[in-house]
Design brief:
With about 100 residues, this protein is mainly alpha-helical. It contains two helices and no strands. The N and C termini lie far apart (about 35 Å).
């Protein structure tokens, strides 16, 4: 995360093998904040263009697993993703309205 603009510079889920980061992703960003203590809350505020991107990219099925990496690492698309980190309160993922 760029601490000045809150732009997401790199996103990767942690796994047992650790992280593999392409350092060239950070060349245009003078300052980077690496965060491993955050949980993806599955809450996104998107511009109307996002719906068009899902129609164009029919193999994207999930906003978290497909859209975020697809937009961030695309050489064709020039979109940016910005973050908001809630410092108080609670957020949780609702999977079913019955639960």
């Amino acid at each position: 995360i760029n601490p000045d603009t809150k732009q997401l510079v790199h996103y990767q889920s942690m796994n047992r093998r650790g992280l593999q980061v392409d350092v060239h992703r950070f060349e245009a960003t003078p300052s980077v904040q690496a965060r491993y203590d955050l949980e993806y809350a599955h809450a996104s505020i998107c511009s109307p263009e996002v719906l068009c991107l899902f129609t164009d990219e029919f193999d994207w099925q999930d906003l978290h697993n497909d859209f975020v990496p697809g937009v961030m690492y695309s050489e064709i698309l020039s979109y940016q993703i910005y973050t908001y980190i809630a410092t108080e309160g609670y957020s949780g993922r609702v999977v079913s309205l019955h639960s």
